[in-house]
Amino acid sequence: MELKDVLRARHSVRAFTSAPVDESVVREIIEYATLAPSTFNLQPWHFHVATGASRDAVIEVIAQTTQYLQEYVDKLGPEAVDREARFYADLGGAPAVIGVSSPFIENPLVDHTNICLSIGACVENFLLLATERGLGACNLTVPHWVAAELLRAFDVPEGRELISIMVLGYPDEQPVEQERSTDVVTWLR
Question: Which CATH number fits domain 3-169: 3.40.109.10, 3.30.930.10, 3.40.50.1970, 3.30.390.30?
Answer without folding.
Answer: 3.40.109.10
